[in-house]
């Protein structure tokens, strides 16, 4: 069983207006310590909670819940609410960047693209033996990334309007250079040379600033998958963690068997990411291996079938099946936001704040 860790980004919104509020440093100063870590993010309206290194899914769930509750309590003390949404629902002015030389550098490089980028994701780290293996694993993960995005879609509203997309966060992210599904790399050295060249050409602020949806982590001995919108519920993040770990383990088994990853068509990769962002689970997706359109729901079934032996091996199968069943019944985060919008966009913010800190009910593997 591979270790797993999760990072979740959140927005801080004013309790009265529902718009975002640039008081992240004050919230972090108030927050009680957790088993993981709490961090600032690029903009002063955002905060992040990260778990530690976990082996069991119930520990992932416990630490995710702990991080959310700590940040939410600190936010309330500042007259704010913690909101798990991929984008800001209500109109808000562009917030200032978080203080620090690196954040200033990023703002200088990307200018207006980053100034209003109040987007929040869920990043999953899975432990691997070394960077060479990490690069090879990322190659194998590429066909599944759009489906992980579709499952996570939780950003239909942006600055007071319905975008028509399930994940507007992903559309916003495509404005950065080099975003999307990671190119095929034959080695860690080739990966490093490409990143170095992008930095030299001015497209990346530094080597840690790649925008690919999966990568060898620049900081940890892990594969980092950051395709997902932040989940409205803890359950959404747990599902991403379990499926991502199982897909990494499937990739490792393919490598052990001497099977290389398929080389994917770059334009179809872009089309697959766009379709997942546009429709979530409620429309057409793109099968990147067979290069043809297919219902997003069928891609989920195929992903689950691929992950299933490793979910069973990890003791996660029953929980993931229950989480997928619940997602099928309740809809994605985007669907839940649109359902709440019958009461207006302020009702969407209220719903998001409530579910962000709701205690998970599902505990099929002993989670509390």
TrEMBL record:
EC number, UniProt record: 6.3.2.2
Regions annotated as coiled coil: none
One term of GO molecular function: ligase activity
Catalytic activity: L-cysteine + L-glutamate + ATP = gamma-L-glutamyl-L-cysteine + ADP + phosphate + H(+)
Keywords: ATP-binding, Ligase, Nucleotide-binding
InterPro entries given in the database record: GCL_type2/YbdK_subfam, GCS2, Gln_synth/guanido_kin_cat_dom, YbdK
Chain's role: ATP-dependent carboxylate-amine ligase which exhibits weak glutamate--cysteine ligase activity.
Family the entry assigns: Belongs to the glutamate--cysteine ligase type 2 family. YbdK subfamily.
Annotated protein name in UniProt: Putative glutamate--cysteine ligase 2
Source organism per UniProt: Actinocorallia aurantiaca
Record lineage: Bacteria, Bacillati, Actinomycetota, Actinomycetes, Streptosporangiales
